[in-house]
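User: I'm writing a short report section on ligand binding and want a predicted complex to refer to. Could you take this sequence and heme C and write out the structure as tokens? A short remark afterwards would be nice.
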Amino acid sequence: MKCFRALVAGALLVPTLAGAGSAQDGNTEVVARLLEERCASCHSPESDEPKARKKWPNARDLGATAGDPELVIPGDPEESELYLAVDFDDMPPPDSDSAPLAASEKELIAEWIRGGAPAGDPNAGAASSEAGGRSAIISWISHFHPLLVHFPLALLSAAFLAQVLVHLRPAWKTEAAASFCLALGALCAPPTAALGWLLAADLSHRGSDLLTHRILGTLTAVLALAVWGADRRWPGRRLLLLAGLAALVSATGHTGALLSYGAAWLKPPF
Ligand code: HEC
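Assistant: Sure. The structure tokens for the complex follow:
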């Protein structure tokens, strides 16, 4: 039990430390990526939004953005149009496909401006990722995280459902199905979490949303293995443990979906 507690504590601590590190270093690179992802669809020479291009010609050119006093007053986010536009949720336009920025993302922009809006070296991104030893292969492998997540998500939920049926409909004999789904789900969870950790290196600008997802995902992987391991010892508590696990894996899936699709994705049209 001691060892188990240490595992959980470790699982909580590691993502916290990693998150704290990534918020500080590479703020410039992170802001560059954020503006590129969320603004360049309209604010770039290729966009078909002439009004947007006129106010801010190229969201991909951080140097030009930082040097335009109509957009950025280095050191003073509250006087910088770029920050005010996102702070008031005027940008991205509420009726566009681009989701509004999360509070943590707004804060990254404010911090970047407060720090003098450094544009960095335009090639720094590619150079630092190579220097950091993060090869294209590892990045490619990490892209399988969104594919693999469906296995623990569905299997651990199915294990809970099968166990509920053990109690409600004993004649259906779903106990073996519950065991099978739990075992397979528990075995799929750690590799899924590991790929998530690799993928997180590409998403460091997502700040606290990413941190929440990381903590939940790591907990899910550790607890899924623990529940599977303890299954034989506590048969009487199986329903309760599987209910907890199903809730945890759902919360992890939900926070992951928010990262990928944004909060507006499932908003009903009425
Ligand atoms: C869907 C297209 C679209 C996206 C995405 C978009 N903008 Fe805009 N933006 C516009 C348009 C159109 C204007 C011109 C508005 C006007 O002149 O009335 C504009 C104007 C601006 C202005 C000038 C001040 C203002 O409010 O008119 C700023 C600053 C700005 N955008 C920042 C951003 C930032 C930062 C992002 C990304 C986080 C972003 N925009 C994403 C379309 C977009």
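A remark for your report: DSSP finds 13 helices and no strands in the chain. Residues 12-25, 124-132 have pLDDT under 50 and may be disordered.
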